[in-house]
Structure formats: C-alpha cells, structure tokens
Amino acid sequence: MILGITAAEKYVAAAYGVVFIVVLVYVLIIGLKLGRLERELDELTGRVRERRETEAERHEEVPVG
Amino acid sequence: MGLRTRENPLAALAALSALLVAAAIALIFFYVPTDADQGFSQRIFYIHVPVALTAYACFGWGAWKALRHLWKREPGADLESYVAIHQGVIFGSLTLLTGSLWAKISWGHWWLWSESQLVLFLVLFLFYGAYFMLRYSVEPGPARANMCAVYALFGVVLIPISFLAIRLANQLIHPVVFTLQGPQMSGSMFLTFCVSLAAMLTLAATLFHIELAGKRIDSRLRELRELLA
Question: Whole-model pTM?
C-alpha cells in the first residue's frame, strides 16, 4: 500500500486512466489534423484569390475599341 | 445554444456524451455498492464491458456499411465502414488493456491463453487490425472499396463467436454476468452499467462523426487541389 492506496484502487485508477488518456490522444490527433486542414484551406484560398487577381489584371489590360 | 445544437447535431451528440460520461463516473464512484465478492476492483467491470460491447457495435456498424456499399452502392459507405472499423480497433485495444488490468487484480495474470473468450477477442482485434494493412496496400478506388467491404463482412462472423465463446466454454474463469435468466447483478449495478454503456456508445458515435467529418473535408480539399492544379 502506497500513500494509503490499495492495490485494487491502483488497478481501477489505471483502467479508467488508460481510457481517458486514449480518448485524449485521439482528440489531440484530430486537433492536429484539423490544424493541417486549416493550413491547406488557407493555401487553396490564397491560390484562388491570386488567380482571381491575375484574371482581373488581364481584363484591365485589354484595350477597348 | 438550443438553436446552435439543432443546427449542429454533432455538438448535441458531443454534449450528450459528455453528460453521460460524467453521470457514469458519478454512479461508478459515488453510487454503486462495492461488490461483495471482488471488492473495489469490480468497478473495472463498468468500463471494461461497455468498452468491449462498443467495440463489437463499431465492428458491426462497419460491416453493415460494407454491406450497404456492396449491395446498394451507397455513396460514402466505404468511408463510413473504414471509420467505424477504426473506432472498433480503438475500443478493442481499450478492451484488451482494461481487461488485462482487471485480470491481473482478479486472477493474478495479465493474460490467460486458456481462456477462449480472451483469445477470440484478440483474434477479432487482430483481424480488424489487418484491415488497415489491406486498405493501405491497395491504390484508392472502387477495387479497394470492394476488397475492404468483403473483408469487413468476413470479420463480423467472429463477433457472435467471440460473444458466445464464454457461454459455450466448459472451463470458465471469465465471469458470465448476462445469462438467459437476465443480468446477474443488483438493480443499482445494472443501472450503472446501462448508463456506462450508453456513455461509451454515444462517445463512440461522437468520435465516429468527428473523424468522418475530418475525412470528408480532407477528400474535398484534395479534390479542390486537383481542380486548381
């Protein structure tokens, strides 16, 4: 017995702790994945914006008449 | 808040699972009486069995979606089957971990190869673990989806065998709580078990929908990237 904790209590704490940790790690992985998706979305948005600006510039350059 | 949860069912599901997990923990540690036979360590039952049943449910859901893919060619069923099996493997590994801890304190062993229930669950777990090897060894496309669906359907046969093994085996160390005569436990223990099972099932459903949403966004982004290239 350490610090008044019985062996049974230690095993029960370990069983519940392992479930908690696995769920936490899962949420962490999902969080990291969301971060990556956000970065990819930012990159694609930037690319679309760039393309639109280039097209707008091209329209401006066309002589009328 | 009400409007927001109605617009976003995933948020409502996540809130429900958080509520049920909190209720289950409160019942397990502050309400349910200590088992006269096993003592305090019996409290592992309220996490171990619901987690194991949730793993079975996830594998079953994965097989159902695989069947929908093969039978009805339901769009997205392959992805749903994959995510469900992934959840099943996570809950399966938790079953093995919590089971080993319970076995050590109750029987004095981390694992017993003589117990058919344990070995069959390990076979089921390894079978679905190998699903990912198959999936990632084949190029994405209809052929991979069909192969994975057939594999997922084969695995579902192991679920009733694994579940019934304990009831059919002659030498039993692993306890049998649910018999044909009903649950062999008091009302308060059964209530705690039911809340814990509901908590694990809603938690699995929440994680399933979160992962599925992530996978769908990922594939749409890939599509968008190809369109912009």
Answer: 0.87
